TrEMBL record:
Top-level division of the source organism's lineage: Bacteria
Name of this chain's protein: Lipocalin-like domain-containing protein
Ranges of residues in domain Lipocalin-like: 28-119
Coiled coil regions, renumbered to chain: 95-122
Naturally occurring in which organism (per UniProt): Muriicola soli
The entry's keywords: Coiled coil
Length: 138
């Protein structure tokens, strides 16, 4: 009986997992640094430091994402390249829908707080980001 109760408690916790709400989407704005990639096989790749960070800007369920290179003076090197997207609610989740002249793809926002972002693509690869903290030299 104890095992059944434990199993049901775990199942309930998993099924009530943190879902992204519309009010959470404001946290997407800003700079994000990749920290880990999890593959469907269970393999993981850790990133101690990255030469680029992702910048997201969202307004009214659409926005853009671009790669930027941070400098030591809290400024960034960037190009004019940006991936435009729209956000779409789908089955208790939000999907980032990208489309350009070459292709279209999507990523599910699996988790989003002010300090952590997890995106999952169609191949079930999870990208785990942390809020980027600018470099400062004193």
């Amino acid at each position: 009986m104890k095992q059944i109760c434990s199993f049901l408690t775990i199942l309930l916790c998993i099924s009530c997992g943190q879902k992204v709400k519309k009010e959470d989407l404001k946290h997407l704005n800003g700079y994000w640094e990749i920290s880990e990639v999890e593959f469907p096989s269970g393999d993981k790749k850790q990133y101690e430091m990255s030469a680029t960070v992702d910048y997201f800007e969202v307004s009214d369920m659409s926005g853009y994402r671009k790669k930027v290179q941070p400098l030591a003076n809290s400024k960034y090197i960037t190009s004019d390249d940006a991936e435009k997207f729209r956000l779409e609610p789908r089955q208790d989740a939000y999907i980032i829908m990208y489309q350009n002249e070459m292709s279209e793809w999507e990523e599910e926002i699996e988790s989003l707080t002010d300090t952590r972002l997890i995106l999952k693509n169609n191949e079930q690869i999870r990208y785990i980001y942390k809020r980027y903290e600018p470099l400062t030299l004193e």
